[in-house]
């Protein structure tokens, strides 16, 4: 059975990639345009097949998610109500309205649960900052929910990748990686066209 040699791929590059994509998909506005979950799935399958340690993989993704939400919150704090004047939200006001409604309804819980809800994930921290949520509350919720997200998503994907590695040959795994990435890109394009 074929194995992926991580030294060829570069374990450091894979870890940097999971950190970067986890961060970018959490960033305000940018996260709405990036097919993060599909890309993370493809990367995580590769990491599991290449025996990158699970704890290190989850830690890098968690750090990226924590930083992405944190940057979005700080942007919201700095911008305040003028976030409504951002060109993206003038073209797509429904994204901001959804984030505001979710935050107003759930408060601190919106930070903890919002990262698990795709379309509003990158908007809620921005809204929380713009609506002057207590920084202490935000950073507490961010610190609790980031590892929970890492375990729920990345660890599950990793275990799936281990199962694939133990069941399929390298060409099959490579095909699945390519397919997952392609599907993620197609879905992202379709969603963006729908909301133009």
Written account of the structure:
- With 196 residues, this protein is mainly α.
- It is 78% helix and 0% strand.
- The protein contains eleven helices and no strands.
What's the tally of helices?
11
Low-confidence stretches: 1-5
Radius of gyration, taken over Cα atoms and rounded to an integer in Å: 18 Å
Q: What oligomeric state do these chains adopt?
A: single chain
Shape annotation? elongated
Query: How many distinct domains?
Result: 1
Provide the succession of SSEs.
Answer: HHHHHHHHHHH
Q: Please indicate the percent range of residues in DSSP E strands (runs of 2 or more).
A: under 5%
Task: Report the span from N to C terminus.
Answer: 46 Å
| Helix share bin | over 70%
What is the tally of beta strands?
Answer: 0
- Please state the structural category: mainly alpha
- Summed over residues and divided by their number, the pLDDT gives a mean of 82
Q: Mind describing the biggest β-sheet?
A: none
Keywords:
single chain, 196 residues, mainly alpha, 78% helix, 0% strand, elongated
Quickly describe the structure.
The chain has 196 residues and is mainly alpha-helical.
Outline the secondary-structure elements:
Blueprint: H1 6-9, H2 11-24, H3 30-33, H4 36-49, H5 54-79, H6 87-91, H7 93-106, H8 108-114, H9 124-130, H10 135-167, H11 170-194
Helix pairs in contact: 2-4, 2-5, 4-10, 4-11, 5-9, 5-10, 7-8, 8-10
């Amino acid at each position: 059975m074929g194995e992926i040699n991580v030294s060829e791929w570069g374990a450091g590059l894979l870890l940097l990639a999971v950190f970067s994509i986890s961060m970018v998909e959490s960033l305000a506005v940018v996260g709405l345009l990036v097919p993060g979950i599909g890309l993370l799935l493809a990367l995580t399958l590769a990491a599991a097949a290449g025996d990158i340690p699970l704890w290190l993989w989850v830690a890098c993704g968690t750090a990226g998610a924590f930083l992405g939400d944190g940057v979005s919150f700080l942007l919201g704090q700095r911008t305040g109500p003028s976030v409504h004047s951002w060109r993206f939200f003038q073209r797509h006001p429904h994204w901001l309205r959804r984030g505001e409604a979710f935050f107003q309804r759930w408060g601190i819980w919106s930070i903890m649960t919002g990262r698990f809800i795709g379309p509003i994930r990158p908007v809620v921290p921005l809204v929380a900052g713009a609506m002057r949520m207590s920084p202490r509350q935000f950073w507490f919720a961010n610190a609790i929910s980031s590892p929970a997200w890492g375990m729920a998503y990345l660890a599950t994907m990793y275990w799936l990748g281990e199962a694939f590695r133990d069941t399929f040959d390298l060409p099959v795994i490579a095909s699945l990686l390519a397919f997952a990435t392609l599907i993620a890109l197609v879905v992202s394009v379709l969603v963006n066209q729908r909301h133009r």
